[in-house]
Each structure stands twice: as structure tokens, then as C-alpha cells.
Amino acid sequence: MKKKNLPLIENIEITGVASEGKAITHYNDCVVFAPYCIPGDIVDLQVTKKKHNYMEARVARLVTPSALRLSPVCKHYGECGGCKWQILPYEEQLKYKQQQVYDNLTRIGHLTIPDISPILGSKQIYQYRNKLEFSFADKRWVSWDEIHKAGGIENVVKDNALGFHIPNCFDKILDIDECYLMDDINNRIRNFIREYAIENNLSFFNPKTQEGFMRNIIIRTNSQKQVMLIVVFGEDDKQKCENLLNVVSEKFKDIVSLIYIINTKCNDSISDLPARCYCGSEYIIETMENLQFKVGPKSFYQTNTAQAYELYKVAREFAGLTGNELVYDLYTGTGTIANFVAHKARQVIGIEYVPEAIEDAKENSLLNGIDNTLFFAGDMKDILTRQFIDQYGKPDVIITDPPRAGMHEDVVQTILSASPDKIVYVSCNPATQARDLAMLCQDEAYTIKAIQPVDMFPQTQHVENVVLLEKSTRL
Q: Helix-strand-coil percent breakdown of the chain, rounded to 5?
């Protein structure tokens, strides 16, 4: 069956911003979504997918740039899947993120809400991340533009790559020379390792055949500019591992924790693999107020340290603790929020799915001399039951910070049956947050009292949001 020719829409104005960092316009009563453009741009759009009531497209030509449009800082813009909004002024990014929160709560949740507090913007809009992961591949991703300029794919050298996955492509790696999301140390380390591997004929990983020596690197930093480097090898060759690690250790004195992992599995997950400390410490320390947190190679820690502090301050303020409350911290991760609020609570109980994270949470309590926390590992819907609440006590306040998918309906129902005075809902996805809030507010069980968006990820469409709910007083 012959495939239909998809239309080219010429000289159309982009009118708004949609989800996933895409822009939006309308054509013949149909919504059109396209990435890498902003409101005010006049563009030619090549439709790539056509459905009954919407189309997806790519920008074939920028006819007239928007008055708002900035030149992208990064040369990989448009190929790398991140930082889609770097052509949009930061003030405009914040405006659309604020609107995103409002739209999700009112249109998805159909919620009655108070005025939303102005979004808390990030002081650093580049170099704000404390963690980046890069992958090796024995053939780099080649763009259509490069193929066209070379006169065909046969004229393009598809050499080794060390960089980011192309969105939705597990086996396609874009070779990255520069990334502005982290301190420049990430560029210097990554580019050095790539050059060393090429010069010493170390094989780059092939995601399809699952073969190759160089597989991944993970770079973590703390606010003191100390660096943890995790090198993931696809083969267990002791001599080649040590040769690379020795050279890297000598070259970069900022690396205070050098870790390596051997991964011969068919996926990139390292959670079930031993992390071996080659030199330095097994962890780096991050500080927040008077607290210290151990960050290991597998630890979860918010990737924007400065904004994480702002986020946690909002959660603590919304909780309104006096020192007498029993607090449940759901999806506690490594217990960062639990330990952050513990000094203002009678007791904090943290629950998290990942056992290693719970061990980190316990370690962090010990490190800070905190003795009023309890942590439990397991699936939230299986741990947080009425029997659990009967055993450990009815919470006065619940703080919940679930993953992007939000909370399981069973968890929501258990929260409702526990009937805490306050619920502080921290979310990285206002859409699933809106869905959960609608369940919590049904039958007027809870009322939304405050809403505070926080921008954790400048140059992207992502936004964090904190909502305070209070138990309704019924006549």
C-alpha cells in the first residue's frame, strides 16, 4: 500500500508552547506540534504524522524568527534531545512553566485552586546539574543534514561516539563535544577519555551486538566542586581498566572518588552491579544547611543542588511542623526530605521502593546525628497499608514525592483513610499530580491551600510543583 504524501505547511506562525518542549500552532482546524521553535516564529512545517485531530511536524525552514528568539548556546541544539528551550528567554520559560502548572491542575484535575505563587526561578540557568551520564557507541549518530551535505550516507564517516542517546533510540548515540548543563569539568573529562580510548584502540560499545570495552561514564559533582567519576566497562579486562583509570586519576586532580563497574548485561542499569572504588573515597559529600548527605555512585540526589534546597524549604514550610508531629515521607529516596525536616518533627517515617536508597537514608541520619527517623524499603502500595499505620501510628503530616507516573490509586486511598491533617505533594509531573489531587480532593476530603512551582531544569520544559492540602472541616 502506497504511503500518503504528508503536507508541507508554509508560512505559518507558531502560537504557543505545548508539552514535551514542543511548540504549537493550528492548521485547518487541526492542532500541529513541532519541536525547536517558539511562539512568534514564522516557519514552514513538514508534517511527519497526521491523525484525525492533530499533526506532528518538523521545521523545514525558519522563514522569520520570533522577536523573542535567542541563538542557541550549544552547538548540538536540534540534535541532542535536551535543552529544547534554550532559544527562549529564561523569563519566557518561567512564564510557560507557570502556565503549565495552572493548565494541568484546572484542565486535567478540574480542581478549584487558590492563586499560584510565582515560580521560583533558578539563579543558574546553565551549569546547574550535579550529574550527567554519557554512553559509548562504535558508530555515531549521523544527522540528515550531514548526510545531505556529504552527498549521501556512503560519504559519511560513522566513527566512534561518546555522548547522549538520541531520543527514543536506545542504539543511537550523538557524539558530544560540549554540554553546558554541568561545570566544564564534564567536557574536559569526557573528551579526554574519548581521545584516550581512540588512541589506545579500546573498543567502543555496540548496543546491538552488546560487545565493546568502553560502555558508559557517569560524572557527579558537589557544591565544593569535587568530582566523582564512574567508568562502566563492557568487558572485564583488568589491565586495560587499570591503564585507563591510572591516566584519568593523574590527569584530573578534581576527581576525589574514582569508581568502576563491569557491566556485561544486556542493559545499562548498574543498580544490581558491584561498584568498585579504584582510588579516593567511595562517596562525595553534599551539604544543605547544617546537614551532610553521602552521595554514592548509585545514590539518588536531586540533580540541581541549589534548587533542591529551595524545593525542600517550600515542602518544610508547607508542612508547618511544630516538633510534635508524626510525618510520613513517601517515596523518600535517600531520605533527603525526611532528614531535612526531622529536626522540626517528633518522628519521620520514610518509605522507598529501592533498598539501596533506604540504606543511604539510614546512613545520612547517622551521619547527621538524627535519631527520630525510621526507614522502610518496599513497594509503596504494599508497605503503606492500614496495618502499617496501626503499627507505626497515624501521621499528622504526609509528604509525598512520587516518580513521574504519580501515585498508585491504592496509595491514594490509604492516604485518605489515614486522614492526616496536611498533605504536601511534591511532583516532577504536574499532569499526574493533577490526577492524584483530584482523587484526594473528591467529596471535599481535602482542600488545596497553596501551590508553589519551582524550576529545577532551566532550558527544558520540565517543572517541579509543590501543593499543600489541608483536611476539610465539615459541619
A: 30, 30, 40
CA–CA distances in Å: residue 3 to residues 50, 139, 258, 354, 426: 12, 30, 53, 47, 45
What nine digits make up the cell of 5? 504524501
pTM: 0.93
Which residues, other chains included, contact 213 with Cβ-Cβ below 8 Å and sequence gap of 6+?
197, 202, 203, 204, 205, 233, 234, 235, 237, 240
Cα 109 to chain centroid distance, Å, stands at 23
CB 114 within 8 A of CB 450: yes
Going by C-alpha positions, the residue among 114, 111, 84, 112 that lies closest to residue 97 is 84
Distance of CA 211 to the CA centre of its chain: 28
Q: Is 387 helix (H, G, I), strand (E, B) or coil?
A: helix
Known active-site residue 428: yes
CB 263 within 8 A of CB 238: no
Nearest to 76 by CA among 459, 377, 463: 459
Other Cβ atoms within 10 Å of 296 Cβ, number:
22
Q: One of 37, 241, 428, 441 is an active-site residue; which one?
A: 428
Which H/E stretch holds residue 94? helix 90-103
Per-residue pLDDT tens for 398-435? 999 999 999 999 999 999 999 999 999 999 999 999 99
| Mean of all residue pLDDT scores within the chain | 93
Position with higher pLDDT, 433 vs 271: 433
